Amino acid sequence: MNITFSLYTRETGNNSQMISAINSSTIQNSHFSSNRNTTFIIHGFGSTGRKGWVVEMCLLLLEVENINCIAVDWQEGAKGTYISAVNNLRVIGAEVAYFIKTLQKLFRYSLSDIHLIGHSLGAHTAGEAGRRIPGIRRITGLDPAGPCFEGTPPEVRLDPSDANFVDVIHSNAAHFPAVGLGISNTTGHLDFYPNGGTVMPGCTDLLPEMKQSEFEVIIADATIFGGCHHSRSHEYYFKSILYPTGFLGYPCKTYKSFDSGGCFPCPQEGCPMMGHYADRFPAKLKRENQKYFLNTAADPPFATWRQKVFIQLSGAKKMRGDINLVFHDSEGNTKEYEIASGDLSQDQLYAKYLDVEINPKNTTEIEFLWNKTLFTLLWARLGAETVNITHGDGHRLTFCGRGTVTYGVPQLLTPC
């Protein structure tokens, strides 16, 4: 299978050093440092560890942390049929475990300094390595593969016992009859289901409906559906390094309950951040199989901040139209969100849950904007008397407006 381990450090820059546990002098003569944490990144079916997202993630991690980043390539074993790749991952997991044991022998390296990140079949590969060496600090599963693993015993897939802390991002979970490449069951201590975990906004590839037996035949022939949804897991992790607070997960029983406004704001112990900083959550080991939900944006950087917005109107007693809020940040970005549409009255309080793509810490101002329907009087005026915003951490802000404006004219709101 021609398995290789490529070491990236701040000393190597954009290049890498090939290191081998069989020829351990390559490790000793490299820029590997036993004084740094080590992250292994393992790709999945039909992919490679020599270029693309694996290398890009190593380079980004090195910008924020002085670590040893090792890109594991098993491209020769990951091509061909899906079933053969499933069988091969046992060997890859054993190779990764052997490499870690070599680090222990050479440097007395601590398992508490090791983090394994695996996508798809790579997630179960990380689990296999962790099963062979108990005590690894952390394993992150990026949409662990579903076919051949859904409903199987913990010994043959990623599960919470494979590391001291296991966090999982589900982005293409299989919910038959819809086809999905990822596993839907919880497989970690913290399991995140962005946008419900199956279909990701911004992806245009279709998820067809078929019988499970038909899907297994297609997978065996290496035909992939839902590749964009499946890849979103490592794209979300990548962006979470740069926008840690933009991927807050809310504990909820179902996505439907979360999406309708339930489970907001965060409970007393707070909410974990999906992705790279999930291990900073104090209650991460409170129990296994904790489910967390969030919504993401359709386009990079995908980060959103959930808010509950209340608007008290001033002006006309009653009219028809729609009311919107426009958020501005310090970099000149703006985003407009509709709050309500239909009958509008100053006697009513309008509320809505928003997943805002503007970081609250960078928000410089908010504008109120309304548009009339065809039969609304031309001289009608409307304004926002107050806008109350509750953030996920429970923090509240109130913005006040002065007077009223005609349709299409923005009204600037300032903190009260």
UniProtKB/TrEMBL annotation:
A GO cellular component annotation in the UniProt record: extracellular region
Listed GO MF terms: lipoprotein lipase activity; metal ion binding
Q: Where in the cell is it found?
A: Secreted
What chemistry does it catalyse, as a reaction equation? a triacylglycerol + H2O = a diacylglycerol + a fatty acid + H(+)
Please provide the record's keywords in A-Z order: Calcium, Disulfide bond, Lipid degradation, Lipid metabolism, Metal-binding, Secreted
**GO biological process annotation, one example:** lipid catabolic process
Q: What is its main location?
A: secreted
Going by the entry's taxonomy, the superkingdom of the source organism is recorded as Eukaryota
Q: Where in the sequence is the signal peptide annotated?
A: none
The enzyme's E.C. designation: 3.1.1.3
Positions of the Lipase domain:
2-302
- Which InterPro entries does this chain map to? AB_hydrolase_fold (IPR029058), Lipase (IPR013818), Lipase_LIPH (IPR016272), Lipase_N (IPR033906), Lipase_panc (IPR002331), PLAT/LH2_dom_sf (IPR036392), TAG_lipase (IPR000734)
Q: What class of enzyme is it?
A: hydrolase
Q: Which family does it belong to?
A: Belongs to the AB hydrolase superfamily. Lipase family.
Full protein name: Triacylglycerol lipase
Q: What gene is this protein translated from? A: LOC115608384
